[in-house]
Amino acid sequence: MARLFEQLQVAGPEQTPELAAGIREAWSRSGSAAVDLLVERGREALVAGDRQAAIEHLTAALDHAPDFAEAHVLRANAYYLAGLTGPAIDDLRRALAIEPRHFGALQGFAALLEEIGRPEDAREVWGRVLALMPQDARALESARRLDIMLGGRTL
């Protein structure tokens, strides 16, 4: 994992998605087949649009593996899609306490901060994403847009 993060620091824009996918793959394994199955069911429920089932599966996974950051991130997505912003933020915070480099959690947190009217905080979090992934297109665009907005200029 450390090697992948080091490579991500110096990767070009064309390499960043592949390296990020490798990190995501490592994060998706809990070490328990049962927990991984619950997480997979939660992912499938999210894809199918069944937010409540996703929340239930991911909550069950977290009951067995409370320090599994990826399950917190996925449940945050389910909560957000269900209109439950507070629990989504709580899960993102928990994921980041477990894995401070979780760029997916940081991206979600930045987007939520902007949505709830905290652009300065969102810009700071996008900066943390860029510190991990300097060539991430979404982070670069979001940071630029917020820099313009916070500088008082119009797009």
Notes on the structure:
This protein has 155 residues and is mostly helical. It contains nine helices and no strands. Helix 1 packs antiparallel against helix 2 and helix 3 runs antiparallel to helix 4. It is globular, with a radius of gyration of 16 Å.
Main traits of this protein?
mainly alpha, 155 residues, 77% helix, globular
Topology of this protein?
Blueprint (H helix, E strand, L loop, with lengths): L1 H9 L5 H12 L5 H16 L2 H14 L4 H13 L3 H14 L4 H13 L3 H14 L4 H14 L5
Helix pairs in contact: 1-2, 3-4, 3-5, 4-5, 5-6, 6-7, 7-8, 8-9
The helix content, as a percent range, equals: over 70%
Structure summary, number of beta strands: 0
Estimated radius of gyration: 16 Å
Share in β-strands: under 5%
Name the structural class: mainly alpha
Largest sheet: none
Number of helices: 9
Task: Look at the structure and give the mean pLDDT.
Answer: 94
What is the oligomer described by this structure? single chain
Give a short summary of the structure:
The chain is an all-alpha fold. The protein has helices at residues 2-10, 16-27, 33-48, 51-64, 69-81, 85-98, 103-115, 119-132, 137-150.
